[in-house]
Structure formats: C-alpha cells, structure tokens
TrEMBL record:
Pfam families: Flavodoxin_2 (PF02525). It is an enzyme of class 1 (oxidoreductase). This is FMN dependent NADH:quinone oxidoreductase. Homodimer. Binds 1 FMN per subunit. It comes from Marinobacter lipolyticus SM19. Keywords: Flavoprotein, FMN, NAD, Oxidoreductase.
Amino acid sequence: MTTLLKIQSSLFEDAGQSSVLAQQFVERWQAQHEDARVISRDLATENIPHLDQTRLGALMTSEAERTPEQHEMVAFADKQIAEVQEADVLVLGIPMYNFSIPSVLKAWMDYVARAGVTFQYTAQGPEGLLKGKKAYVFITRGGFYGDDHAQTALVRQYLGFVGITDVEIIHAEGLNIGDETRDKSLAAANDRIAELLAA
C-alpha cells in the first residue's frame, strides 16, 4: 500500500496558504490513489518540542539504562522517523517566517535526522538512508525571493542529506503584496499541481 505523509507547519494551521496548497495536492493525489494511506501532521498544533540537552541525552542513553521519562522521549522521536520511513510520498507545506522555515519544522527535522538511522557517515561523506521517496514541497512567501533563496536551499539540502533527492518545490510568492498578485500566484501554484499529477 502506498503511503503519503503530509507535514504542515503554518502557525495559521489549516488556514495557512502553504497548508491549503498542500491539502489541495493531497486531495487530488488521493483521487488517483484511492487505496493509499495518508498520514497528516500539523506541527503547529502538535507542539513538537525543540531538541534540548535532556532529549538529546535520552537518545544517547542505552535502552536498558533509560528512565521511564527518557523512554517516552525516545518513543516520540522514533515515531517521527517511522512515519517518514513508511512514507513513499512526502508533502510539506512551508511558509516563510523571517527568511527561513518555521521553528516547529526545524524541530521536527532535528528529530528525523539521526545518525545511523536516517543517515550515516562514510569515508565518502554522509549518506542519506531515506532513499526511494518523492517529496512535494509547497513554499509560500509574502514577497518575492525566488528558487535560489536560502530557505529553498535549506529544504533541498536537508531532504538530500537524509536521502530524499527526488524533490519538487512549488513556490507561491508575493502573497502579501495585493489581492491580484496573491490570486495570480496561488492560481499558478494550482496549475503546477495539475501538471504534476497529470504527468
């Protein structure tokens, strides 16, 4: 069974433009994959805790020596990784906040990137272990910054680092400039969704 994992990170939850675009993609994708399983995660409402010394210590403690609290912390981290491992397709909704990704998304990324599990170090450099997956990324921005912006580069680099190299990024920019600009940008993003799913 094909599994799709949708991750949204807008503080506006389902009403965020990146969340809306991601959901529109998923709904159209589901219509073509009726037997597929879809897992949805809203990082803004699920209160993903930032990785701190206590949580990192739990991950670095052997299973036999972990306290009950540490076992709970590790189980949470393992769940984030397991969902990505199980997914054949990832859909990410990412707004731009202060020129980068939302902090809740960065927190999620910190849990998913784990040495020996989702990537490994080799003599030739790091190797991602989450191979064979397709990612669709919807990035929304109030202004115009382009595909070569640091935010886009960060997303590509991170996904590639854990082994996800088949990445399609769809930008919807200029959303805060005016109604006409916003509507045109969102329409272009929806046209791109249609193209991707028709391919």
